[in-house]
Design goal:
Layout (H helix, E strand, L loop, with lengths): L25 H15 L4 H10 L1 H9 L17 H18 L3 H15 L1 H4 L6
Helix pairs in contact: 4-5
Amino acid sequence: ELPPGFNPFERKPISSERNLDSLMSVRKIRMKKVMEELLRNVNDEEAMDAVLLDAEEFLCEQLNDMDAVLDTDSIYEPGMGREERYRRYGEAMEERIGKARDSNVRKILVRLKDFVLAYDERNGGKQG
């Protein structure tokens, strides 16, 4: 028998999800791995390109797929169109580059921004 007031569409978080904000999202974990790989290869342009190309779909997903799941702290809002997302990405990256104290981190952020913003050039203008 179901408890009184049970609603199958109202999901109560299980204990492991209660501190979801303190846990890293899958996207953040993947981004951290990409950044670590880029840092390991910061002085090898070809290796950095290989890391970026390997992660291209992941890196550009939220820019090109309007239905992509957005983290709660995403720089994008659900109603944003593709051009708005690219503009917001460029602004956010410029901000991060400006705040970066380490020259290697700055170099990686510039490389990442340029790579992502050149998506259409690399893919013949096709979207997503």
